[in-house]
Write a structure and sequence with these properties.
Layout: E1 6-11, H1 15-23, E2 31-34, E3 51-55, H2 56-64, H3 68-71, E4 75-78, E5 80-85, E6 91-95, H4 96-99, E7 105-109, H5 110-122, E8 127-130, E9 135-140, E10 145-149, E11 154-162, H6 169-173, E12 178-194, E13 201-207, E14 210-216, E15 221-229, H7 232-238, H8 241-252, E16 259-262, E17 266-275, E18 279-280, E19 283-285, E20 291-292, H9 300-316, H10 325-353, H11 358-373, H12 375-385
Parallel strand pairs: 1-2, 1-11, 2-8, 5-13, 11-19
Antiparallel strand pairs: 3-7, 4-7, 5-6, 9-10, 10-11, 12-15, 12-16, 12-17, 13-14, 14-15, 17-20, 18-19
This protein binds flavin-adenine dinucleotide.
Amino acid sequence: MTETDYDIIIVGGGMVGASLAIALKSSSHKIALIEAFDFKTNQQPSYDDRGIALSYGSQRIFNTMGLWQQLAPHTTAISDIHISDRGHFGATRLSAQKENVPALGQVVLARAMGKVLNQAMSENKTLDILCPNKVIALNKQPHHIALMLDDDRTITSKLIVAADGANSTIRYLLDLSITEQDYQQTAITANISTERPHNHRAFERFTEFGPIALLPMPDNRCSLIWTVKTGDETAINELDDDAFLARLQTEFGYRLGKLTQVGRRSHYPLKLTQTDQPIQDRIVFVGNAAHNLHPIAGQGFNLGLRDVIALADVLIDEVQDCGAPKHLHDYQQWQQRDQDHVIKATNLLVRLFSNDNSMIGHGRSVGLIALDLMPPVKHWLAKKSMGLGKKQPRLARGITL
Ligand SMILES: Cc1cc2nc3c(=O)[nH]c(=O)nc-3n(C[C@H](O)[C@H](O)[C@H](O)COP(=O)(O)OP(=O)(O)OC[C@H]3O[C@@H](n4cnc5c(N)ncnc54)[C@H](O)[C@@H]3O)c2cc1C
């Protein structure tokens, strides 16, 4: 077998790439991770002030990876989810108590999660972290892949894991096609303080332009994701804080009393981007590099973490050649259905709940009332949003989700 510098190179040290490096820490493989932004200065763009809702399934994965203890102090439990539709009757509530679980999920600031993941990675002395470094070219050989870095180094590996985000450089270098849907929506994010306590409730409110989500955070703050029509975000972001809160209050209502304060605002254009062939010879795409989702259902990272754990499961055994087609096909067989389901369900939610057609509006309010009256369907929805599917993964290191 050809000698290579590494068995596995992970390109991208965001939430997904970092989680994979940590999940593989007890394997005997020689692993490198390449990240464009310096960890020490905490500048990675996705480790910002967005609130990430971690599903119950993700919590259990982090627990098995030995990371939950470090993450837990930064998280806020979601005990209930309140779903409503602006201008229509009908609302439904999902409850941890009814589902017999300690919490439906946990909210963590992306910035806080970044610190925990970066710390755990830097404690792993067998991992080579090449950072700040960018991959700028790639050369495929039958038995290895060579990567050229921006400091003129060339390194080789049996397997490349592309975890380099929605605008993946690896995908660009391979000239791979994508399927893209531009929703013409933009998410505005900020932290909000409210008059009444959230009491660990999360809110998802659908409006004719898109959903508004408020996730519970410490100190009675909430993490806001407000979806608006692309083009409208500039005018909304230019409003002063009082005018911004007044506009949001009109859309969200008074379930948490008066909205009293807003922190720094950011915005993100929303698109579905899917890499058409996420498995190549000795290359696999995971996380946003494989599928970048609308945040409507808070599933993007949760799905990426399931990619990670399924891939780690395939690679962690005493595998000789990590890039051998068998391992990549095993991974794809395991993860493809999960990815297809989550992408389809997210897309359907975006279409259904972002349409101001009155027939659809009427239909979905009936749907919300029906959902509230049908415990088995609610139970199914709650299980899905907790990341607990019907078919439970077999995971080598004893994770049963
Ligand atoms: C507003 C908003 C709210 C969200 N809320 C939720 C939620 O509640 N729950 C949830 O599960 N998900 C949520 N998500 C989705 C979640 O943020 C993403 O799924 C997650 O950040 C993807 O992580 P990633 O590591 O795949 O990609 P990224 O975070 O994009 O990381 C990619 C990394 O690769 C590096 N990189 C890129 N190119 C190169 C190169 N050439 N060489 C070296 N390094 C490179 C980048 O610097 C970056 O650090 C939300 C997203 C948004 C926008």
